[in-house]
Fold each of these.
Amino acid sequence: MAIVKHIKSRNANYSAAINYLLFEHDEKTGKKIVDESGRCILRKEFYMDGLNCDPMSFDKECELTNAHFHKNKKREDIKSHHYIISYDPADVTENRLTGERAQAISLDLAKQMFPGYQALVVTHTDGHNESGNIHTHIVINSVRKTAVERQPYMDKPHEEAAGYKHRSTDKFMSTFKKTVMDRCQQEGLHQIDLLAPAERKITQKEYMAQKHGQQKLDEINQKIIEDGLKPTSTVFLTQKEYLRNAIDECVATSNSFDEFQSKLLEQFQISVIEHRGRYSYLHPDRQKRITERALGTRYGKEHLEQTFLCKDPLAILYVRSHLRLVVNLQTNVKAMQSPAYAHRVKLSNLQQMANTIIYVQEHRFDTQSDLKNTLLASKQELAELQTQFTQHRSNLRILNEQIRYTGQYYANKEVYSQFSKAKYKGKYRKEHAKEIQKYEEARDWLRSFYQDGKMTSLKNLTLQKEKLQQQISSEEEAISSLTEKLKDLDTADQNVDAILQMQIPEPVKSKTKDLER
């Protein structure tokens, strides 16, 4: 199956991307591999294309674009985005996937998802992170070079215009993953549902932390072994992996949440609580809790409660899984080519149909119109909530500026007052240039902001900020909850359409028309 990863980079040296993609690197250290003469070794097989640029001058062209739009000047600015599409190793032998074919597929995907951006599209056949699979790197400049038509996944104002920066939002990533899934199914390649939450969610950041931690632990253990001692630990665990392992062990022997909670605390010193309908775990070496979302669905409230229910002989045996889309066998290339695969899809479709019917009954949708009206109303509600959320975030930025300049104004007011009374103003300004400049900057900003001359006190501004932050936090939760609801509604709606379509008999050809001919 193809999977999609995203990495953002603040490195202003775009040449580093070209070097990594062209030359062999040590996956553990990240350093170039050189020959006996100290020269870089070109990768054995790769395919390279440029999108809106010459691939060999990608670095210079990106720098020119940034300079033209006066972007990416600060060190903390995100200079580029790196997307990796990794194909299933089995596709090479079972579905005749080659590097050239993967490059063609990925280039089409890049054109579709990154219009107007300068991008490097490079496919490697030597495996990624020792996985042995064909994979494609898509590296884009964060600044859009040319304006394009606005796309459905764009939720920021002017995002389609030239000079605006790319943002890898949840909405964009969902669209990208859906596009990859659809293309892989069209090509007859192995594919899983990338939009379904992962059972064990391991981010790129956690993967790299585990990799570096293991490398450091191996170095320490080597010294311990050389001293004639035995290492106490040979496997490095991230804090999240420690939690996952502990949860797996405790849930296997627990019949209720209370029992599970007690065992986690007694055996692993891990505290678990329920907050806003989700579980949160506290690692013994942390002050801040880790939510179930960061660990994966296997460690969430819904899955664990279902596990406890299944251990109860009086509990309902059937537990509904997450809704998945019914696959159309008429358009699925792989199903047409493989009867065994088609059989598996049919069984999966039956399960999803059953889940859809249960979902419809649970939510008391009497007619298909009820379902569609609820879906439409939820979409409108989400759009309104997102607009309100965006406005409140904008208000928070303005409020932060008010607090900043108000504090800056009062902090330097006394110095400026002394400056006004000073006999030798030139000398005083030179000695207190920084404070006077900050005061004048704050004064001018406040004058332009408060047209009536009435300033809000710093205390009231702070109270307003606290209230607004609480409102934004509440809206974030509401948007997240509504998005999950909308995803189930949309899946149920599409599945109901598919089920009803299957029940419509094929039209019989009219004999009358044949006779008339």
Note: The chain has a mean pLDDT of 85.
Amino acid sequence: MNKSPKRRFITGFDGLRTLGVIGVIMYHLNPNIFSGGYLGVPIFFLISGYLITDHYFNTVDYGGSFSLSNFYTKRIKRLYPGMLFVLLASGAYIVLFLKDLLYHLDQIFVTNVLNVYNWWQIFNGQSYFERFANNESPFTHLWTLSIEGQFYIVWPILLILFTKYGVKKSRIFGFSMVLSIASAIWMAILFKPGVDPSRIYYGTDTRLFSILLGCGLALIWPAEKLKSGLKKNDKLKLNLVGLLSFALMLLMIFTIKDNDPFLYRGGMFIFSITTCIFIAVVAHPDSFWNGVLSNRVFHYVGTRSYGLYLYQFPVMIFFESKFKNIADHPILYPVIEVILIVLVTEFSFRFVEQPLAHAKWQDVKNFFRSSTSVQRVLALVIAVISMTGCYSVVKAVSAPNPNVNHSELATKINKNEKANKAKKQKAIENLKKAKNKQDATGKMSDADYARYKKAAKSNPINTEFEKYGLTQIDLQRLKDVPMTAVGDSVMADGSDNFLKLFDDKKVIVDAAVSRQLDPSIDILQKYKDQGVLASNVMIGLGTNGPFNIQQVGQIMDLVGPKRHVFWINVHVPTRPWEKTVNGVLDEATKKYKNLTVIDWNGYSDGHTDWFYDDNVHPNPEGSMYYSAFVAKEILKSLDKK
């Protein structure tokens, strides 16, 4: 199929959008697939910056007049039908089936319409506890639309002013690049390891560099002025640059994790530059890559990429609210979700977005005269959904706050963290003074047994744990077991029990919400450098995301072969990585003799009464079972040495 140069690069960009939206959706479905699928967002930003700037100068350079009002009208008709329908349709579902999500829906609706939702997210966004309380917002991803909306409002005005005052393209290019670099540097400055990165992830000022790189590319590489007929060697070089940039894009998407400091300290900027180079290659009419990305499938997906992006979160969250055992069906459920996303997107594209994008007042009058019965039924369905959605927005004004940040779980973890902070510092000081002269193994000798038996009779301790499988001798013995523990919110939930079971003057329990594996390596290294890393190391990680055998190897290498690692596997059936994490740990036990996996997942199987509603964090009763089981398994392992 022959295409004009403009048609070729537009369809090539459809292919780029396809890659971006597939990466984003797969990442949200399962981070195992694309660990850096969130890098799809810069692709959208770059294309927007390029197309808008290229369109402006393609108009004025050929003597045309750029109409700001016409531009805004087209943008509104292109973007708002889909955005409004996803808000209203989701609102309709929420008011009927998930009323806990009504809170703040009115503010979410208004801030999206006004293109300031990303800033609302920064100041009112969700906490960790909302993720695991079946209360995750289906609108979190819409922050990108607000940044693009702000760009669509401001950038054309700046271009008009630049043109009016005769500013050369080279100076506009310099202006774009300076702002882009400043934005990337600002992101790096604001990033603090271990601190929630939402401010820099959602901020217009810290994400502007991708859009501005696209703007700069359009100024020096305008699509309409790119001519075919390159020499064979030049064409080869062009396609080789495309191959290298595309390969680097894929490498970064598959290897950079969302908690990697490098991502915010230049990684995202490097990815944007790499993608910018690839876009330049795709835009050229002699590019092999343009042909690859212009296939019919990519063109189809690319034309619907906006809808696919819009509906991904609502479909996933609404589906997973009804089918909670995601880990039991790691392939089937994601496939169903993708099918639903495609079907909902197609419905919206055909019957909402396209009709409204091209509608005129005369079309509305003609609809009631000449529409078929099927069309009228569809219009009625859309109207009912929209009206129900409007009702949900009004209802949200008086909706009660679900208060997940003050739930029993949140309150307990916050209390544990405060109580543990002082104890942890005291334990570190004690261990430094003792120069880490703890019992090397914790293994019990005959003399130890006699001592513990005597103490059990004369001075019983922690008797409340006896009903959970620990004997009084076990409880006495645990006080002599040296331990350094690092974990996530599940361990933080049970940290008070661990500090009872072990000697809190000599045992470090470092657990925090939302913690993943990579930051924990630095924490363990810090304790090792201080000389307070015990001969036994307990780890409880994997609730918040998957890891691989190489990452486990990093921890095992850091700890060293003379220390024993007790790794508690995960019970997180609401996330697709449960089996992946537990499978990696089982694989690691075959490689590392000093690694023992404590099978909390198997022990807790079938005991939903041990957990809060999220089916992830143990409730007070479950926490007793959790900590007692872990302690008993540690003692059992020490006896085998």
Note: Residues 1-5, 436-440 have pLDDT under 50 and may be disordered.
